[in-house]
Amino acid sequence: MLTVRIVIVIMLLAAVGGAVAQELGQQRVARLMVGLAGRIYTHRRSEFQGELAMLQSLPEETGLHYAVGALFAATVERVTLGKALTIDNVSKTLGGTRALDTISLDVPAGSILALVGANGAGKSTLINLIAGVEQPDAGTITFGGVDVRSAGRGGIAFVRPESQLFPDLDIATNLSIGGGSGRGWVLNAKAEQRWAEQALAQLGVALDTRTPINELDHADRCIVAMARALQTGCELMMLDEPTKRLTPMGVARLQVAMDHVRQRGVGLVFASHSIDHVFTVADRVAVLRNGCLVHQSEIADTDPDQLVRHIVGASDEASAA
User: Fold this and answer.
1) What would the DSSP string read from start to end of 186-202?
2) In the chain, where does DSSP find H-type helix?
3) pLDDT of residue 315
4) Residue 48's closest CA among 22, 28, 30?
5) From CA 162, how far away is CA 78, in angstroms rounded?
6) 98 φ/ψ angles, rounded to the nearest 5 degrees
7) Is the distance from CB of 123 to CB of 116 less than 8 angstroms?
8) Are 48 and 38 in contact, with CB atoms under 8 Å apart?
9) Is residue 284 packed enough to be buried (19+ CB in 10 Å), middle (13-18) or exposed (0-12)?
10) What is the pTM of this model?
11) How far is CA 202 from CA 4, 230, 246, 263, 289, in A?
């Protein structure tokens, strides 16, 4: 439904652009459209600079049609495909210990990857590398085909409610601060609350946005932090043990929110100790043991017993015997 609405808007923009072109000139409108396409699909903005240069050599009418096509294609690609994360032969040593050893993983846009393993397996280290908290010693991490070390980690959010939310402020205020609500010099509490309600509705959640963060349970705090990340343009979320300390009802609410994030074309990577939670929300699973990737598969292609064997190394011991 979201994709259809955005495509309709772009088609209307194209129609309006044709009319405006009669007044402003087709070449000018074409440049505006290609510039908008670049803003919609930020990680390919440099390519759209080349598109702008190409427009100079095209007849005005042809250039306008070309620009409409570029704007339409960029919008559809952004909404339907998103950005994929690729981890290629990444290694990291911490305190003389090989925390990660030549890890290679892919996270397609709009998918949920669960990282599982025992304490010290390397799950948190890998999440820290993706989020930019640590830098790999070797290997590359690319997002949308661009090396994150050279281009930065725009669009990647490490969701940590304990450090990203202001506990004494209410939900609406937390979401509006740096969240793109258009908050200006004049405070409009009602407008902030409506905007926050819409932001939470995108995650399938309804909360009283006047509630202070410190009165929420951990599940709802995490959901508010996820909503804030979405409002800032997040296209990949990292969560470290998000279901830890949650009640079954809290886990269920968080899983609903994660599923809504996936439906928006945003990828998620989360670490978990709970095998049950992995099978209820993830599309894919990767098992780390002693810093090594020992198993990865679609969630439909494995079962809890197999994952447990990979986590503890029982499959290796059986094959050695």
Assistant:
1) S--HHHHHHHHHHHHHT
2) 2-24, 26-40, 45-55, 60-80, 123-131, 148-151, 161-164, 171-176, 189-201, 218-231, 248-263, 275-281, 304-312, 314-320
3) 47
4) 30
5) 31
6) -75, 95
7) yes
8) yes
9) buried
10) 0.70
11) 16, 9, 22, 10, 36
Residue 112's SS3 state is strand
CA angle 270, 205, 257 (to 5 degrees): 20
Q: Which two tokens stand for residue 271?
A: 């670490």
In this predicted structure, the answer to whether residue 45 has a pLDDT above a threshold of 60 is no
State which H helix or E strand residue 236 sits in: strand 236-240
Q: Which residue has the tokens 């129609």?
A: 15
**Which strand ranges, in their side-by-side order, compose the sheet holding 284-289?**
156-158, 236-240, 267-272, 112-116, 284-289, 292-298
Residue pair 161/169 in contact (Cβ under 8 Å)? The answer is no
Residues with Cβ within 8 Å of residue 11, at least 6 apart in sequence: 72
What's the full length of the chain, in residues?
A: 321
Which residues in 221-252 are b (16+ Cβ under 10 Å) and which e? bbbbbbbbbbbeebbbbbbbbbbeebeeebbe
Q: Tokens 């000018």, residue?
A: 28
The β-bridge partners of 269 are 113, 238
Tokens linked to 188: 């409009």
Question: Which amino acid is present at 287?
Answer: V
Name the percent of the chain lying above pLDDT 70. Answer: 68
Q: Are 293 and 287 in contact (CB under 8 A)?
A: yes
Please give the residue that has the higher pLDDT: either 313 or 77. 313
Which of helix, strand or coil describes residue 315? helix
Position 179 confidence tier, pLDDT thresholds 50, 70, 90: low
| pLDDT for the residue numbered 32 | 64
At CA 178, angle to CA 9 and CA 213, rounded to 5?
A: 110
**Spatial separation of the C-alpha atoms in residues 287 and 297, rounded to whole Å:** 9
